[in-house]
Amino acid sequence: MTPDDDDQPLPMPMDVDMDVDVDVDVDKGDAGPPKKPKMMGGGEERKGNRSKLPWVEKYRPQRLEDLVAHEDIISILTKLIDDDNLPHLMLYGPPGTGKTSTIVAAAKRMYGPTAYSRMALELNASDARGIDVVRNEIKEFAATRQLFNKGTKLIILDEADAMTNDAQFALRRIIERYTKNARFCLICNYASKIIPALQSRCTRFRFAPLSRSQIRGRLLEVADEEKCVYTEGGINAVLALSGGDMRRVLNLLQSTAMANDTVDETSVYLTSGSPLPQDMSTVLDLLLNHPFQVAYSKITKMCKTKGYALVDVLGDLTTMIMAVDLPDGALAEILDGMSNVEHRLAFGPDETMQAASLVGVFVKARQRMTTAP
Question: Domain range spanning residue 358?
Fold first, then answer.
């Protein structure tokens, strides 16, 4: 070493701070650009974002007490949760009856709003539901335990009737193996599409379509909260078109309120695309009292000019024909013919031809009634 080297200052040792906090998003491989710091007063921003949500999500029940129907199912689930004795579940029934809202509210009651995202895994229709997902993602989530959260996990499989048979058979074994760690909840529209081996491992609850009285209170509450101008006829029209589906009710109310100044009967039917009641009365009169050519030409012209789908006409016509005083034989023949027309419409044939077939069903029934002894 030269004398000049002795005069050089020695390099300082590198200081390593082991307490540096690094936020890593485990769900994203690339951290991306640094996030901008959030300013104070973000409550107004969150409130504005919430106001832009579809009404179906904005007014989704967050607690079991907020649900408007199925009190018996809710009371049973509440008792099972409070007793920490929740079994595997299968919730089935028509869409829009509260199946997903019920189990999500139940999960938040079990874990609280903060731990819900860590203790519950929800897979919906947008997720792949093949056997690989069952063997990998579902199995990995069910097999692990949370370090700072006690209790069993919850795996929610929405629209489970879309799972392949191979995936359902693989899920059967996973349910048996990881019962100590997790509970499974299968949600589906058709219980018949779930294999018997899975059904036997679950406690089943059927969600029936909501009645008009159950829907009406929540419908008026949302309409008042959104400051909608509505008439009694408009509310009754929404209820008539609901089919017991709360999701359809809120979507129809929001669409009508945004497209029209007042939610009345005419605006509701025009927004939904369903035939107006007065038009359906005209169709029924044509079918029962007019010759084939007159009825056929006027019905096809009405469907084309007003954009009615023949399948929607058939649906409303079925309800109306059941209220008409007809002989049993004629009524049975008409309903059988209408069902054949609807079946053919499901395969996409020409609606003009099927409209002629519909008129022919009524003409034949009328001829039999006049010739009957």
Answer: 277-371
